[in-house]
Amino acid sequence: MLVLVATGATALLIVVAIVVDLGLVRQERRANQSAVDLAALAGGEALGWDPAPDGRAACATAVDYLVANVEELPNNLNVPCTSLPNVCNGLTAPVTVDDAGTGGDFVVEVTYPVPDKAIFDGTITDVDGLRSNDGHPCERLGVRMSTNVDSIFATIVGESDFDVDANSVVRQVQS
Questions:
Q1: DSSP string for the chain
Q2: Residue 60 contacts residue 46 (beta carbons within 8 Å)
Q3: How far is CA 91 from each of CA 94, 115, 122, 136, 137, rounded to the nearest angstrom?
Q4: How far apart are CA 142 and CA 117, in angstroms?
Q5: Which end of the chain is more exposed for a tag (fewer CB within 10 A), N or C?
Q6: 113 burial type by CB count under 10 A (0-12 exposed, 13-18 middle, 19+ buried)
Q7: pLDDT tens digits, the chain, 175 residues: what are they?
């Protein structure tokens, strides 16, 4: 009987530990997604509302918003926004720039223009998995932030950390 109680208590402890760790991961994911969404929206505003969106300004604005809203990001976060295309048209290849390690525990990436395949949704029956208001790739900016969350209890079952990714794509908005 004692062995059965000990086994049951151990199993219960492991389940509680996993639930606590997954709760921490979920909270980190929610906070990161909120920050990335806000940064993308700010970048969408900075794209401007004219035939020549400014991807470089949008990138710089998005990065500024991330630094302002994610305490753990260093103030010297360096994402080379000037490496993004200066002019965008239907032939412009997507470019992704990242912080090259200046984000500490975080990796920050900005993509401009965002290709159709990056926002493809197979459940949509409009044109090729896109909605009519998804716009042209040159009208879209993508922001991604990833980090690892250290586990507190899951090391018992061999998990030392969990990957947390947040991604957002915005279409340019009118001022």
A1: -HHHHHHHHHHHHHHHHHHHHHHHHHHHHHHHHHHHHHHHHHHHHHH-SSSS--HHHHHHHHHHHHHHH-TTS-TT----GGGS-SS--TTPPPEEEE-TTTTTTEEEEEEESPPGGGS--TT--SBTTB-TTS--GGGEEEEEEEEEEE-SSGGGGT--EEEEEEEEEEE----
A2: yes
A3: 9, 11, 24, 11, 10
A4: 13
A5: N
A6: buried
A7: 899 999 999 889 888 888 888 899 999 999 999 999 999 999 999 887 777 788 999 999 999 999 999 999 999 999 999 999 988 888 899 999 999 989 999 999 999 999 988 887 767 666 666 666 778 899 999 999 999 998 888 777 777 888 999 999 999 865 5
Q: Please compute, for residue 156, the number of CA atoms within 13 A of its CA located in the half-sphere on the CB side.
A: 15
Euclidean distance between CA atoms 134 and 120, whole angstroms: 10
Q: How far apart are alpha carbons 166 and 83 in whole angstroms? A: 22
Give the integer Cα–Cα distance in Å for 33 and 24.
14
Instruction: Tell me the two tokens of residue 133.
Output: 């208001």
- Closest-CA residue to 137 (of 118, 123, 122, 124): 118
Give the integer Cα–Cα distance in Å for 67 and 38: 11
